Amino acid sequence: MPELADRDEEWPVVRSEDLHRDDWVVALRADWLQRPGHPDDQPFKRLVLEHPGAVVIVAVDDQQRVFCLWQYRHPAGRRFVELPAGLLDVAGEDPLEAARRELREEAGLEASDWTALTTTYSSPGISGELLHYFVARGLSAADRDDFVAEHEEAEMQTGWVPAADLLAAAVDGALGDAHTVIALLMAQARGLLEV
């Protein structure tokens, strides 16, 4: 049996073509791969969504409530219950610093205690997007800096939800945002979310 751990591996790319690229941080390209050790095989095409990565924050107050967002997501055609999150769209920014920034911008909060939960790939069959998950405690009100909510974020609702209720909704399948579910279950599994 192979080792029970992911490992880095690169297959040869014989050709690459941009399908969409603009001034936003996400792009789509097609790569043609060659199976290692099989030079006579025809190269095969795979789509790659380039993504800078993101952070997700489980912000827990002293009453064991979690700060949540209710936000519309056009590709899915749904309003999701989510946690504060955001792109690593500042060049060279450390994921923890991005998490601090996103918590200020989306929740108007800062935290004195941060715990890294895990890092996962969102959908490795199409993207190298890495998600960094954190638990934030010791919360207090913070200035949102120069953040201005626009587009879908302008319609976003926010509120505090008891951790037990939020976890129950995740386990019952009422929450469909994978990052919210992963963050909550990891926080509970690591003993960082009391229910």
Automatic annotation (TrEMBL):
PROSITE patterns cross-referenced by the UniProt entry: NUDIX
Ranges where the Nudix hydrolase domain occurs: 49-183
UniProt keyword annotation of Transport present: no
Highest taxon in the source lineage: Bacteria
Record keywords, A-Z: Hydrolase
PANTHER family the UniProt entry points to: ADP-RIBOSE PYROPHOSPHATASE, UDP/ADP-SUGAR PYROPHOSPHATASE
Protein known as: NUDIX domain-containing protein
Lineage summary: Bacteria, Bacillati, Actinomycetota, Actinomycetes, Propionibacteriales
